[in-house]
């Protein structure tokens, strides 16, 4: 009898401890939901920011003395036209500095999901032409996406769960379903606007997309849209809005390319 009482007391104490631990866990989760990054994670992200700032500072210091008030991230086509008109004077004489500065800014924007890389793609076309512009944008877009991938792998999980829980669940289910032909699916996502590229960059390591699949899908998948945007940069002055970049024919072509890339996955799922 005493053994049963002792056992009951032990079970009650264990149950109480479990409830306390559960309450504490809920409290911790509620606090992390308000600000999901720890001090260490913020420090790592800040270190990446600092490295980009130092790189851009070196470029700035090696440029000739001049008025650089035009140097800012373009938010409109007017801003982009001003930036392009001024950078044309430097590109031929300070090609290395312009290229390093361009790559640093583009990779920084991709890493931290800063909108506006479409303007940077237009700028590449207007400054360097189609072939060099496409090569430059594909390189910087891939490098920035890779940087975002690895940064998200280290510290991005709480942010993605808090910002896009439903979209992440959908993406995870699709990746799991197409695991055997995942490259085709990644190509489809890159070519078509099914999911935003920024979301793909930050969510891929969380849903266990292998980096070699992510890398190859990015390199090949961004080429069609990059070509359309860079080519439009050659006639920057004729653009009235960003919406002019993608007319019905361009969007239909991108979806057709995406459909071709995902066809093996569709066939495999039926067999």
UniProtKB/TrEMBL annotation:
Keyword Disulfide bond in record: no
Arranged from A to Z, the UniProt key words for this protein are: Membrane, Transmembrane, Transmembrane helix
Annotated ranges, domain VTT: 114-233
Give compartment(s): Membrane
Transmembrane residue ranges? 42-63, 99-124, 130-151, 213-234, 246-267
Q: Indicate how the chain sits in the lipid bilayer.
A: Multi-pass membrane protein
The protein depicted here goes by the name VTT domain-containing protein
Name the species this protein comes from: Datura stramonium
